Amino acid sequence: MDNTNQRKALINGEIGLFLRGLIIGKVLTLMVIGGLLWWLLKPNLASRSSVNSSNQNFNTLSSTGSTFQTVADVPTDSFNYGGSTAWASIRQLVDSQIQSDRPELQLRYVNPVNDSPGSSSGIRMLLDGKLDFVQSSRPLTDEEQAMAKERGFTLEQRQVGRDGIAVVVNPSLNVPGLTVEQLQQIYLGKITNWNQVGGPNLAITPFSQRPKDADTVIFSSNSDLKGQTLGSNVQYVYSTTEAVRQLSKTPGGVYYASARSVLPQCSVKALPLGSTSDQLVPPYREPLVSSEQCPRERNQLNTQAIKDGSYPMIANLFVIIKQNKGREQQIGDAYSKFLLTDQGQRAIEQAGFVGVP
Length: 357
Prior knowledge:
Layout (H helix, E strand, L loop, with lengths): L1 H62 L14 E6 L4 H14 L4 E4 L9 H9 L5 E4 L5 H9 L3 E16 L8 E2 H8 L17 E4 L26 E2 L3 H8 L5 E6 H4 L6 E3 L1 E2 L28 H6 L5 E10 L3 H14 L1 H9 L7
Parallel strand pairs: 1-2, 1-3, 5-10, 6-7, 6-8
Antiparallel strand pairs: 3-11, 4-8, 4-9, 4-11
């Protein structure tokens, strides 16, 4: 009898140990599974937290100061606009934000039919009644103002931002930089070899848009050189895209355009520019990103040099408004006000430009 009880006690003890082991094993298993699930979900939770934080920061930025929503007297209609190719990133980023925040307004960019797109062709289309307002990378000329008066209205240029005019060359060209005067003399055909400006013995091939279509200008309206004929060696291109393509194949080539448009390009190199040869300032943030590093990295606009005026060639960004007391004046006025809000100025800087002083 005692043996039987001993065997029962032994069996019960073994069963108890087995059950305790089973329970402990299940607990450990659940702990491992739980830990694994926590580890897997942690990045997603962190990511969602980061996204929520970014959204809160964006909402905070958008809610401070004037916004697109605060602009009054915005016409409800569809409008055509055009002009500078340098404004492409503004059209992509800023204009899309405007239309998202103000869906009652529809904006349509219109290319010229027979001209290359740019500030000049856009202003001509505005004068001809084909556009409602224009984005320009240069100021109005006296001739354009006179043409407007002949047609019974005036044109207003309202500055909304700033850009630099960058000079770009083939990446293989070794030259320290140029002064503004040297650049002008190159395009007038008076400097024809790079050895005249500290470079190699190599003929200069200047590329340019035709003056009547130019998006930016290197001869200011008060310059003694304004109106002079460009040199016979200048090769004319339809657009900045074509010029960049030509430069990549032309060791002695040179071109000037909106810094925001050409600085990020991998197949060209921007040159420092100065009022004098001992005061050369790069249009890009140093150090220079080489063509080998691009497109992993891209050159960015030297915004500080634009802001403090140390970079010698600035392209002011204007909204050109038709002052005719009609729908064109209303939309031009509203659009410029959008860009001059705190939200608009932040968006212009996000698009790679500099806001107004």
